[in-house]
């Protein structure tokens, strides 16, 4: 039985754990290590699949004696990862895959903290994991085997889709586009609601229309992943959609806003990846 240890069962960690237990089937022992997540995990492990196990440990001392995880998923705050690895060092060897979903902690820094020569994989999922619609991208350290990558890929495809990157540096852009991206769409939805209310719709109607439109647009993109084609399909010449788009796209404002948004988020990710003594007040 393969042991998957999750260190940190907050919002993202618990979403991942739920996906693993519900979809990965037999042959796994999932262990959640988190001092604060006992009640929130009660329903997750209530009925694991036949042939699999789930257990929760509040502290390192509560872990089963002799437990040797094949994979440790680090889902804590970035500044806590070093301490977590130090606490788990006796359970890490050269074959243990360390997977970090924390922004700003490089493979080099994680490898240095472990000091075991273990393979390290960084993955950036997003909040879509909570509804099994995550978009994740990862980068693996040199020496990670195809078998190890396949196992980690299965962990993240259990909550959505997963792609591999050619450069670790690209994780800053992944963080900016898909990691932070849901918030941009939520913000635009808020702006649509406010605009509809300003034009005279009730708050209830504005919310229903704006949220329903964003939801249906996302479903259309999932079925037909060509945004330009879908936009053209909805837009009749000289119609209302054309008039709205003309304002939205005028003078390249939307394009510039999008570039500035992605650039700002990626820049912040790079700041957070600096050594602690160089971060200043970045956190």
TrEMBL record:
The gene is proC. This is Pyrroline-5-carboxylate reductase. Catalyzes the reduction of 1-pyrroline-5-carboxylate (PCA) to L-proline. Keywords: Amino-acid biosynthesis, Cytoplasm, NADP, Oxidoreductase, Proline biosynthesis. Its EC number is 1.5.1.2. Residues 6-104 form the Pyrroline-5-carboxylate reductase catalytic N-terminal domain. PANTHER family: PYRROLINE-5-CARBOXYLATE REDUCTASE, PYRROLINE-5-CARBOXYLATE REDUCTASE 3. The keyword Amino-acid biosynthesis applies. Residues 168-272 form the Pyrroline-5-carboxylate reductase dimerisation domain. It comes from the Bacteria. GO terms for cellular component: cytoplasm. Belongs to the pyrroline-5-carboxylate reductase family. NADP(+) binds at residues 75-78. Gene3D superfamilies: NAD(P)-binding Rossmann-like Domain, ProC C-terminal domain-like. Pathway: Amino-acid biosynthesis; L-proline biosynthesis; L-proline from L-glutamate 5-semialdehyde: step 1/1. The keyword Isomerase does not apply. InterPro entries: 6-PGluconate_DH-like_C_sf, NAD(P)-bd_dom_sf, P5C_Rdtase_cat_N, P5CR_dimer, Pyrroline-COOH_reductase.
């Amino acid at each position: 039985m393969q042991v998957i240890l999750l260190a940190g069962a907050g919002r993202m960690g618990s979403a991942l754990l739920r996906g693993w237990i519900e979809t990965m089937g037999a042959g796994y022992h999932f262990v959640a290590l988190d001092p604060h997540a006992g009640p929130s995990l009660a329903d997750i492990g209530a009925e694991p699949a036949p042939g699999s196990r789930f257990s929760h440990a509040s502290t390192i001392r509560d872990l089963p004696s002799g437990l040797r995880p094949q994979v440790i998923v680090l889902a804590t705050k970035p500044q806590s990862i070093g301490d977590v690895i130090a606490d788990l060092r006796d359970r890490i060897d050269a074959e243990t895959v360390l997977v970090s979903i924390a922004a700003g902690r490089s493979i080099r820094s994680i490898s240095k903290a472990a000091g075991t020569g273990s393979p390290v994989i960084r993955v950036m999922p997003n909040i879509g994991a909570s509804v099994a619609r995550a978009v994740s991208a990862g980068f693996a350290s040199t020496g990670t085997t195809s078998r190890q990558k396949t196992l980690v890929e299965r962990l993240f495809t259990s909550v959505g889709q997963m792609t591999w990157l050619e450069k670790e540096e690209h994780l800053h852009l992944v963080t900016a586009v898909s990691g932070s991206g849901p918030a941009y769409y939520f913000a635009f939805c808020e702006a649509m609601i406010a605009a509809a209310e300003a034009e005279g719709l009730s708050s209830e109607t504005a919310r229903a229309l704006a949220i329903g439109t964003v939801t249906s647009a996302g479903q259309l993109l999932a079925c037909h992943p060509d945004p330009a084609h879908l936009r053209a399909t909805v837009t009749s010449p000289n119609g209302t959609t054309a008039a709205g788009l003309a304002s939205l796209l005028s003078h390249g404002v939307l394009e510039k806003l999008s570039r500035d948004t992605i650039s700002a988020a990626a820049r912040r990710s790079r700041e957070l990846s600096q050594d602690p003594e160089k971060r200043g007040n970045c956190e």
